[in-house]
Design brief:
By secondary structure, the protein is mainly β. The chain has two helices and 25 strands.
Length: 352
């Protein structure tokens, strides 16, 4: 019997991680309701007070020619741990934020929608009385529970359920603080032991929204050498719909053709409107250890040879002893008053 794997949403990714709150796919769509003649909304955006209730509508449209079944629920928003795209929590996930503020009045029931039709779903959003000032993010999701069979590949058959969402951003009145932090800069380098050949490095870092407002900006990573010269500049990474408390990892493309040797420092700068730029840096070494070891051995050999040569040279240039000194068999002279040598008087033995 062939195995059947069901793929359900594990966190709905919204278009490009931006605040384009509704992602349309060919078979159905979920978009904020807009007044006739008004500019279509791509997301729900509200300025609200603690305790305030807001009523609004979302439109679900089935563009197929058949009846489709949908499950609709409110969800918390977050940034994915890698890449930072804005996403919504899946059905059944314990909601603690905006997902608990919105009531779609549909419960957990499955809603059937005929092909070629649309329905307007009214919902209410109540901001808790103790809601903290700042930006809170979530959304409304629709999951098509009518399975779409995929071609079989081997013994496994896949059934896919497609989901879409409309983002909801609520700015609760109060002091606004835009801030972010850069941390966790990591470099995983691959350098041949002898130094010659392919030298690569994978650079990653973490961004965190430490303020209470939505951030949209860019992160730029550069690398400088020991002398402060920039040896690598990575392409800017766009960051959109970065929610308060969000934290994610940016993985840069693999860096090739690294410098041959030496310390390199990675610098990361994140900028967003209305905040002081966030920066971070980390130093790593490019170290072809075998080549360095060979150089040290060669240097040690040269020093040893120099020491030996100096010792030999010192031994050959030392003056030998010529044996000069007083002659035991010779006579001694002394100087007279005029400086001339005076022979000593012969000693005369006295006789009695």
């Amino acid at each position: 019997m062939a195995a059947v794997l069901v793929l359900a949403t594990t966190g709905l990714l919204l278009a490009g991680g931006s605040d384009a709150g509704a992602l349309s796919i060919p078979s159905f769509s979920l978009t904020p309701a807009s007044a006739t003649g008004a500019t279509p909304r791509t997301a729900f955006r509200y300025d609200a007070l603690p305790g305030q209730t807001i009523n609004d509508s979302v439109v679900l449209a089935n563009s197929t020619s058949q009846l489709e079944d949908f499950q609709i629920w409110a969800s918390d928003g977050y940034n994915t741990t890698v890449g930072g795209a804005f996403a919504l929590r899946p059905f059944g996930y314990p909601m603690t934020g905006v997902g608990t503020w919105i009531d779609t009045h549909l419960g957990s029931a499955v809603y059937g929608l005929a092909g070629g039709t649309s329905v307007t779903i009214n919902f209410s959003l109540t901001v808790p009385a103790n809601a903290t000032p700042g930006l809170h993010a979530g959304g409304i999701e629709a999951l098509n529970v009518t399975p779409v069979a995929q071609p079989a590949h081997g013994p496994a058959h896949f059934v896919i359920h497609r989901g879409i969402g409309a983002a909801v951003f609520i700015q609760v009145a109060g002091p606004v603080r835009a801030a972010a932090a850069v941390s966790g800069i990591s470099v995983n380098s691959s350098v041949p032991a002898i130094g010659f050949g392919s030298r690569t490095a994978d650079v990653s870092f973490q961004l965190e929204n430490t303020g209470n407002t939505l951030l949209t900006g860019k992160a730029v990573a550069t690398v400088t050498d020991l002398f402060g010269t920039t040896v690598k500049t990575f392409a800017p990474v766009g960051v959109a719909a970065f929610v308060p408390g969000g934290r994610f990892t940016v993985q840069e493309p693999t860096w090739t053709n690294l410098p041959f040797i030496g310390p390199e420092t990675v610098h990361v700068t994140f900028t967003s409107t209305g905040m002081k730029e966030a920066t971070g840096q980390s130093t790593f070494w490019i170290f072809p250890w075998l080549l360095v070891l060979l150089v040290l051995l060669l240097l040690g050999l040269v020093i040893w040879r120099v020491i030996v040569w100096r010792r030999k040279r010192a031994g050959t240039t030392k003056q030998p002893d010529d044996g000069s000194g007083p002659d035991d068999g010779g006579s001694t002279t002394s100087e007279g008053p005029d400086g001339e040598g005076v022979e000593p008087e012969p000693s005369v033995a006295s006789t009695s």
